[in-house]
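Task: sequence design from structure.
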């Protein structure tokens, strides 16, 4: 079964970031998930523009940039100029007055437009955006911190999105508390990719290559 695996780089060892990027790529990661937090839209500061820029230079695989910032359109050009064609940029629709304008800036830069949906955000409130974007990042935890507990009602939201994705031409990605049982349940249903953090990928005794191999060989 084919599905994408993205490394949540806020969980990486920043004392050896170059080595982390190299080891993840050698291990078979599909892309690097970069969480940018401004301390306003979410109650935390995480990765910065400079972190993203460094990973973009060091990595051969695509970047998957998740902007958890207020009014991303005010600063979107700062991020886009350091990314490459084909990289993905997600915004939160609630963080912007006119999210479609921000998404159009991403499209104009030849990048993949996406929206991130918080646990408390209903599908109905982002319906118009679903026809613009190519990726929908479903947050299974409240955004802002790694290592949180899965919120089970998010599963019903994913089921609703799965019923719409063919008609509206988008793919669904899972972010937050991603364990093997979630991949086993939702990959066969049509979730295209999973962001891996401390639950499955980082802080383990085995190598990234061994971990990623085990995830891809899960018995469906």
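Answer:
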């Amino acid at each position: 079964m084919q599905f994408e695996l993205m490394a949540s780089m806020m969980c990486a060892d920043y004392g050896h970031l170059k080595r982390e990027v190299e080891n993840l790529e050698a291990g078979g990661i599909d892309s690097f998930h970069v969480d940018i937090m401004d301390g306003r839209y979410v109650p935390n500061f995480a990765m910065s523009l400079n972190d993203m820029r460094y990973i973009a230079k060091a990595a051969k695989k695509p970047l998957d940039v998740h902007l958890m910032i207020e009014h991303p359109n005010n600063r979107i050009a700062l991020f886009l100029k350091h990314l490459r064609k084909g990289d993905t940029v997600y915004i939160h629709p609630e963080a912007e007055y006119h999210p479609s304008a921000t998404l159009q800036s991403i499209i104009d830069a030849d990048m993949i437009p996406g929206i991130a949906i918080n646990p408390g955000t209903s599908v109905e409130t982002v319906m118009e955006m679903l026809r613009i974007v190519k990726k929908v990042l479903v947050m299974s935890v409240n955004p802002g911190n790694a290592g949180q507990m899965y919120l089970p009602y998010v599963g019903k939201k994913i089921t609703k999105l799965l019923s719409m994705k063919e008609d509206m031409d988008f793919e669904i990605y899972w972010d937050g508390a991603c364990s093997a049982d979630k991949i086993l349940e939702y990959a066969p249903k049509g979730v295209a990719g999973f962001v891996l953090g401390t639950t499955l990928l980082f802080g383990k005794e085995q190598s990234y290559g061994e971990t990623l191999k085990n995830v891809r060989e899960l018995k469906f």
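The first strand starts at residue 4 and ends at 8.
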